[in-house]
Amino acid sequence: MASTIPLDTLKASTVHSPKMKSVKALAESASLSSLPSIYSFTHNPHDETIISDDAEDSVPIIDVSLLVSGTPEERSQVVHQLNKACSDWGCFMLINHGVPESLTKAMIESFQEFFNLPEKEKQEFHGNHVMDPIRCGTGFNPSMDKVNLWRDYLKCFTYPEFHSPNKPAGFSEIALEFSKKNREVVTVLLKAISKSLGLEESYIDKATNIELGLQILAANYYPACPEPDRAIGIPSHTDHGLLTLLVDNGISGLQILHKEKWINVNLLPNALFVHIADHLEILSNGKCKSIEHRALVNDKATRMSIALPHGPSLDTVIRPAPELVDKESHPPAYVEMTYREFLELQQTGRLRSKFG
């Protein structure tokens, strides 16, 4: 059996952001001519591997509509494509997904309006705890030796209970519809991925109690940076949860690590970028790969991304599926704990490893 990290003495973990203005306000300051030292990020050698734009390093593209309305042969082919994308890449680009382009644009515009709010109004939604259902901040990460990330963010828990700031006007209504449409996409994907693993179609749903699964709606705001080579939007990491769906405002900056090469991800128009996350890797006992990725910044334009992590229910213990475990060749290789415990430990830098 995989080991379980003891949490008997774990107290409520908090994330204390420094009392400082947002990165947006700093970037727009007339006095800013160079990067403040607190934002200076030192890349380690692992982060300096070759960057590739080669055609052969293109992220797989999946037409999800064929899972819903395709012929049996087409559905089977997409399931096979998903299996390869999840095992070889840990990510894929999703087209014909059913989320209206107009809704995505409205969501991006609404987040822009939020970040444009006066500093005092945004501070109303400042949170301290990783489980706060609404939390906005400057990008401070306590696990990074007190170096600030060049980003602002807003995170809202949108399922199983919906939470949203009450400003700007219309934000809640758009966020609710956007979250619902993306959750419908995840429902289709998880059933197909379950089949691709040789499991019954509803296995992942049942094993993760997905009816009560946590959905987060998060926006990352990366203003133009005076010295982008010395800063970082988000350093290399993997996501918690099962799947993360992501869109952006058309400005590049997302990179994924594939076969020891950093690959620039440029989304197709109205496509969703899908990350395999840690808990799908755990459940599949390593057959699906949680993708390592990072966000860079630039000195010319503001980039905004919207990410929707979808995870198990908070109190469900996630472990490798017994059908995918073999004591001789494929023993269980991951830590067992509830999703809530994992999330708190990861977000506060206390998680030793997802591996046993």
UniProtKB/TrEMBL annotation:
Keywords: Iron, Metal-binding, Oxidoreductase, Vitamin C
Top-rank lineage group of the source organism: Eukaryota
Gene Ontology molecular-function annotations: L-ascorbic acid binding; metal ion binding; oxidoreductase activity
Pfam families assigned: 2OG-FeII_Oxy (PF03171), DIOX_N (PF14226)
Domain Fe2OG dioxygenase: 212-312
Family: Belongs to the iron/ascorbate-dependent oxidoreductase family.
PANTHER family tied to this protein: OXOGLUTARATE/IRON-DEPENDENT DIOXYGENASE
Name of the protein in question: Fe2OG dioxygenase domain-containing protein
Gene name of this polypeptide: LOC115968784
